[in-house]
Amino acid sequence: MSLLVTSQLRFLRRSPWSALTALIGMALGVASVVAVHLISAEVERTLNAGAPPHLAGLTHLLTRPDIDADDYFALRDWWRDHPRAPVRGLVPLLDGQLVVDGRGVQLIGADWLALPRGTDGPGAPLAISGEVLVGEGLIADADFGYRVGDRLTVGGRDLTVAGVLETGLGPALFADIGLAQRLLDVGPGQISLVGLAVVDPWAPWRRRLDRLMPGFGAGLPQPGAAPLTRLLDAGAGSGIDAAWRARPVTAERPSAAFARSVLFNLGALGTLALLVAWFLIYQVGAIWLRRQHLVLTRLQMVGADPRLLRRSFLALFVGLGLAATVLGGLVGVLLATLLVKLSSAGIDASLAVSAARALDPWVMVKAVGSGFGVCLVGGYAAFVREWRPAAGPARWRWLALCALALLVLLGITLERSGVLGGFLAILAMSLLAVLLVTPLLGLLRHAGRGRLLTRLALREVAWYPRVLDVALAALTLAVATGIGVGLMVDSFRSDFQRMLDVRLAGDLYLYGVGDRQGALADWLLAQPEVAEVRRFGEARSRLDGVPVALGYAEFDARESARYGFPRHLETGEALVNERLLRDLDLDVGDQVRGARGVNIVGAFPGFGDPQGRVLVDVTSLDRFGVPARFDRLAVNVRAAADVAALIGRLTERFPALTVEARTTIRAVALRIFDRTFAITRALTLLALLVAVVGTYNALTALRLNQAATAELLRAQGVTSAESRHIALVRAGTLGGVAVALALPLGIAMAWTLCAVVNPRSFGWSVALQLPPAGWLPPLLLGIVAALLAGLLPAPRERGALHDAG
C-alpha cells in the first residue's frame, strides 16, 4: 500500500498544474458555502433578536367575530380536559390603535406569564421578563427612539418604558393585557385573538436544518391547521364555538417570513458553486485516472488488489480536500465580510461577520464536508465510472430523464411542497440539462463541412465526451444560473420600479404632519410653486383576524388610476392587494370580511407589500371603525426646478417636519434594492469562475490527450496560427454547446423563481420579463470564458492520457 501511495504522490508531483486548478476550484466552492453560512447566520441572529415578544413560542392564532374572555376560557378548559390534544399553550391577546406623541401607534397586550417557554416557535424567547410587564411597564419598538427608563403618556397615564426591542412592526407598544384594555378603553373581558403553541413534528428537523444552513428550515412544511381543525371540531359540543379560524403565526410578521425566504433562496443559490466545484473534482479524478489507466491495469494484471488501487488513488484527494478546506475557509470569511459590506444597506446596517463566528462548529463541519467530503466522493465516483463503466447507459439515462421530469412536475404543481419543491424542480431541470450534454457532443461527430482543421477540432470535441462532458455541464449550470437569477432580479426590479411609480405620485412628501395637516396644506397651496396637495393616511387593522394596512385618501379617478382602477372609489368600495386575496381566500366582487358592507371592486399586485393592504376612500373609514387621521401629504409642484426652493422654505418654516423629494426616495429605494441582490449576483459569478477553471482543466486534458496528434500536425506544416484556430474552434464549440443548453434552462429557472418560488415565499407574483440585459451578459461571459480557457497556455506536464474516449 505504501508503494502505491508513493506512486500516486510521484504522479501528483508530475501533474502540478491540474492539481492546482482543482485546488482553486474546490477552494472557491468551499469559500462560497462558508460565506453564505456566515451571512445567513448573522441575518438569522438579527431576525430572532427582533421577534415580536407577544409571538414568542406561538405557532398559530385563533380568531372569530366578537371574541371575549369567556371564549378563551372555554378553549382553555377544554384543552386542560384533553391533555393529549396537540396544543402546548394558549395565550389571550389584544391589539388596538392609540395616538402617542402625535403618532398612530399599535398597542398589543398579552398575558405574558401564559406564553409557552422553551418551545420551538418562530418567535425568539422574551428578551425582557414577562414579570416586568405585569403592571405599568411597557416594551417599546425601537422605531420610537425611546430608551429604557423613559417616561411617556399613553391614554392619559404616565408609564415607564421597561424595554426596547427591534420587533419589525413599526411604531408599536407592548403591555400587560389588563393595562392594554384600560388604555384602549375596552371592556375587561374583550380580547382580539388567542395564540396557540401547536405540536410541530417538523420542529426538530427544522432546527437541525437551520443550524446546518440558516434559512433552509423555511422550506420544510410548516405546522398545519389540520390538528387545530380536528381539535375545534371535536370540542364543538363542549362549549367551543365552531366559528374559530386558525392561521399560522407567520402571518403576523410577514416581513420576517420574507427575510427567511430570502435566506432560503440565498442558501440554495450559494450551493451552486459547490455543485460546480464537485463537477470539477469529479472531472479531475476522471482525467487523472485515465492518465494512470495503463499503469493501474498492469498492476492489477500482476496481482494488485483493485481495492488497494482505489485507496491509493483516493489518497490523492485526501490531501487535495484538506488543502481546499483550509484555503476555502479563509477565503470564505473574507468573502462574507466583503459581501456584507456590499449589501448591508439591503439587510441591516448592524450586520458584521466576526472571526469568532467563523469558528462556529457548524461552519467547520460544513467546510470540512464541502471540501474534504466532496473530494472523496468525487474521486470515488470518478474511479467507479472510469474503472468499472456501467453497462447499458441508455437504459438508466431514460429512467433518470423520466424521474427528473416527474420531480419538475411535482415541484411546480404541488403547492404544499412550498419553497423546497420549487428549488427541487430547479435542481431537476439542471440535472436534465446535464444528461443532454453527452448526446449534444455526439452530434458533432457528423460535422462534414467547413475547413479541414475546423472539422478536425469539432470531431476532437465529439470523440472525447468523457474528457469534456463534466466541465461542459458545470459551465452550462453556471451560465444558466446567471441567466435565471439575472432575469429574476431584472423582473423583480422592473416590478419594483412600477410599484415606486405608483406609490410616489407626488413631487414632495411630508411626514409627521399630525394635527397640523390642515394648516400645512393651506400654507402649501398659498405658495406659487405648488400645484396640488393630497392627503394620505394609514392605519393598522384586522380583517377576519388577519393584520392589514388600511390606506385611505380622497380616491378620485386620478388616484384610483394609479392602481389600475378606471373610476373613483365610492363609499363601501375597496381595492386590495393580491397578498390579502391569498390570505383571506377572496376574489374581486366579494365582501371584505371584518368590515361592514365593504366590497372588493379591484385588486393590484402590491409588489413589496409585506402584508395585506386595503385602500379605501376616506368616507369608508367608519365601516372599519377607524377615525380619519392623515399622517402625510403629497405635494405636486408646477416645475421640477421649484422643488429645491420649496424644500428650503418648508424646513425653515416647519423644522419638525420630515420632507423628502420623490427623486431622492426613488433613488435610495433602488440603491437598497440593488445592494440587497449584490450577494446573489456575486455568488453566480463565483460559480462561473469555478466553471471556467473546470473548462480550462478539461481543455488542457484534451490537449494533453492530443499531444501526439499535435506533433503530427506540426510535422505536416500546420502553423502556430492554425493551431490557435483549432484551439479556438474547440473552445468556441464548448461555449456554444453550453449556451445552447443554458439559455432555455436559465429561462426555465427564472420562470420557476418568479411564478413558483416567489409567490410561495413572499406572497406576490412577479411578471417574468426577458430583457437582453438579463440573459445576454451571462451568455457572453460563458462564451468568453470558454474561449479564454482554450487560449490560455497549456502546461507541459509529463505523462500521456490513455485513450478511453
Describe, in plain words, how this protein is organized in 3D.
- It is a single chain.
- The chain has 805 residues and is α+β, with helices and mostly antiparallel strands.
- 57% of the residues lie in helices and 14% in strands.
- The chain has 26 helices and 17 strands.
- A hairpin with a 2-residue loop joins strand 11 (530-543) and strand 12.
- The longest helix is centred in the C-terminal third of the chain and has 43 residues, at 720-762.
Helices and strands: which structural class?
alpha+beta
- Share of residues in helices: 55-70%
Compute the number of strand runs: 17
Major sheet strand order: 5-6-4-7-3-2-8-1-9
Low-confidence segments, ≥5 residues, pLDDT <50? 118-132, 345-349, 797-805
How is the main sheet built? 9 strands, mixed
The overall pLDDT, averaged over residues, is: 75
Nearest-angstrom radius of gyration? Answer: 32 Å
Distance between the termini: 29 Å
Q: β content, as a range?
A: 5-15%
Count of DSSP helices?
26
Q: What would the principal axes of the Cα set say about the shape?
A: elongated
